[in-house]
């Protein structure tokens, strides 16, 4: 699955929002002098600096990840969502009914900071009427050194409902001396159960410390 980030022209600043006005290219954003607020690039990617570690952090919205069958309106809808009333709307994937789940994407890990431990999480909301999730989610994280981390996420039905939660896919660190840095890749799937699944909303993937 190949979901490259394609920087686009920034939209005008909303003076009542906490989203700052952007340079036109991702490379310019990474050189932003004092990003003390969250930076949103055309509804596709959020960038901020962790105050404690000064590490570069990113949130990949759903234009940057691939969801199986997301083009079929009977299986997935794409409503707009605002975290705050003054924010630009972002697109989420809301599951209607599907037999299996497959989500994946990648990110250029050379944009990340070295020497800090990152966590990669799928951010989702579980609706009140969640069903069809008797089998655990399987996750794969391909780290910048090329190694894999595999996890099994049990008891999805028992997790908190009706608010955004993080499903952690794994952790990694880029050592200062590492020369060859591969793309970060992530996959989440559940294909064993043959019951219709519903009740899952996908916001995106967070790469943060």
Topology:
Elements: H1 26-29, E1 39-41, E2 45-49, E3 56-61, E4 66-67, E5 76-77, E6 80-81, E7 90-91, E8 93-95, E9 101-107, E10 117-131, E11 137-142, E12 148-153, E13 164-173, E14 184-190, E15 198-208
Antiparallel strand pairs: 1-2, 2-3, 3-15, 4-9, 5-8, 6-7, 8-15, 9-14, 10-13, 10-15, 11-12, 11-14
| Strand percent estimate | 35-45%
* Number of helical segments with 4 or more residues: 1
Q: Report mean pLDDT, rounded to a whole number.
A: 83
Radius of gyration equals 17 Å
- According to DSSP, the number of beta strands is 15
Most strands sheet = 8 strands, antiparallel
Cα(first) to Cα(last) distance is: 25 Å
**In percent, how helical is the residue content?**
under 10%
Could you name the ranges where pLDDT drops below 50 across 5 or more consecutive residues? 1-24
Order of helices and strands: HEEEEEEEEEEEEEEE
Name the overall outline. globular
Write structural notes for this entry.
A hairpin with an 8-residue loop joins strand 6 and strand 7. The chain is built from 1 helix and 15 strands. It is an all-beta fold and 209 residues long. Strands 1, 2, 3, 5, 8, 10, 13 and 15 form an 8-stranded antiparallel beta sheet that branches. The chain has a domain at 61-206: Jelly Rolls. Residues 1-24 have low confidence and may be disordered. The relative contact order is 0.23.
């Amino acid at each position: 699955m190949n979901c490259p980030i394609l920087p686009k022209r920034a939209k005008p600043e909303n003076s009542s929002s906490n989203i700052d006005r952007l340079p036109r290219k991702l490379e310019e954003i990474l050189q932003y002098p004092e990003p003390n607020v969250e930076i949103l690039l055309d509804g596709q990617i959020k960038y901020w600096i962790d105050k404690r570690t000064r590490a570069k952090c990113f949130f990949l919205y759903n234009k940057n990840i691939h969801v199986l069958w997301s083009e079929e309106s009977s299986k997935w809808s794409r409503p707009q969502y605002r975290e705050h009333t003054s924010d630009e709307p972002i697109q989420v994937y809301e599951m209607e009914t599907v037999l299996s789940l497959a989500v994946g994407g990648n990110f250029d890990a050379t944009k990340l900071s070295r020497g800090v431990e990152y966590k990669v999480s799928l951010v989702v909301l579980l609706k009140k009427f969640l069903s069809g999730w008797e089998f655990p989610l399987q996750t794969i994280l391909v780290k910048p050194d090329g190694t894999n981390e595999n996890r099994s996420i049990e008891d999805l039905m028992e997790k908190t409902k009706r608010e955004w939660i993080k499903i952690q896919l794994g952790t990694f660190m880029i050592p200062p001396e590492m020369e060859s840095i591969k793309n970060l890749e992530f996959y989440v799937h559940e294909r064993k159960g043959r019951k219709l699944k519903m009740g899952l909303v996908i916001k995106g993937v967070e790469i943060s410390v």
